[in-house]
């Protein structure tokens, strides 16, 4: 870590913070000096996350449903109440949905994916950006996926939602740049996580075979680690990335290169 990549003194608000990527990001950002405001749904392992942070970390947990306007407004207000500002917003909460061909995809399941992955991202921006505009500074990292860049059979809802996140990122970047706020998107490929395990299970009854088939499509011939995604998020959130704005950054072992 250099002085430019340090997050010392910054406040990072992370949604989906108890999940695989959110947790790894919170830990790394805390190690680099950021205060962490962790947001996740009721029943999430916030205590486990708190225990995994460095002992001297500044940490505040908020329970919220990212689909609900009032609850999103409340988590933004809670961050300001706890630490006075929001320097980094990792707009990360998301779900994969079920795996099914589009003609068999349950309408309610499709709507749930859109509500969490798209409406949740939109509401986060709606409530956090005014805080950053008031400061004249801030960084937003919207978590998309390589599913936002290409199609995947059986994942129409997830793919549609992650394409939408990239569109929102580009639109909001054009709005926010002149006001001192950077907005980017991070797009993980296959990552060792509960989410990928769930997708593999939906694609085949032989999870090991499904896992191996996906790894074979990656030029690096492996799944990524959540820590590798967190490293990119932390870099983009730092002063070292001051001219990175509006970009769509993949961390996928080269999967989108072929």
Automatic annotation (TrEMBL):
Organism from which the protein derives: Phreatobacter oligotrophus
Protein name: NADP-dependent 3-hydroxy acid dehydrogenase YdfG
Boundaries of every Ketoreductase domain copy: 10-194
GO molecular function, one term: oxidoreductase activity
Keyword Glycoprotein recorded: no
Keywords: NAD, Oxidoreductase
UniProt similarity note: Belongs to the short-chain dehydrogenases/reductases (SDR) family.
Name of one Pfam family that matches: adh_short_C2
UniProt-listed InterPro entries: KR_dom, NAD(P)-bd_dom_sf, Sc_DH/Rdtase_CS, SDR_fam
SMART domains according to UniProt: PKS_KR
UniProt cross-references to CDD domains, sorted A to Z: SDR_c
């Amino acid at each position: 870590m250099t002085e430019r990549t340090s997050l010392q003194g910054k406040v990072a608000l992370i949604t989906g913070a108890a999940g695989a990527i959110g947790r790894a990001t919170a830990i790394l950002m805390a190690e680099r000096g950021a205060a962490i405001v962790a947001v996740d749904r009721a029943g999430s392992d916030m205590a486990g996350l708190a225990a995994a942070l460095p002992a001297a970390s500044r940490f505040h947990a908020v329970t919220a449903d990212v689909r609900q306007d009032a609850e999103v407004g409340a988590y933004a207000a809670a961050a300001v109440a706890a630490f006075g500002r929001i320097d980094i917003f990792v707009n990360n909460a998301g779900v994969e949905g079920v795996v099914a061909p589009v003609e068999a995809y349950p309408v309610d399941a499709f709507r749930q994916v859109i509500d969490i992955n798209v409406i949740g991202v939109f509401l986060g921006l709606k409530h956090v950006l005014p805080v950053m505009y008031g400061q004249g500074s801030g960084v937003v990292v919207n978590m998309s996926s390589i599913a936002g860049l290409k199609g995947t059979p059986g994942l129409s809802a997830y793919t549609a939602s992650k394409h939408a996140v990239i569109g929102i990122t580009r639109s909001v970047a054009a709005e926010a740049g002149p006001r001192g706020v950077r907005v980017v998107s991070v797009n993980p490929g296959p990552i060792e996580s509960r989410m990928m395990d769930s997708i593999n299970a939906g694609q085949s009854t032989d999870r090991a075979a499904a896992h191996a088939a996906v790894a074979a499509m990656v030029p690096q011939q492996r799944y990524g680690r959540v820590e590798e995604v967190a490293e990119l998020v932390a870099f983009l959130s730092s002063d070292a990335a001051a001219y990175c704005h509006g970009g769509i950054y993949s961390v996928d072992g080269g999967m989108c290169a072929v």
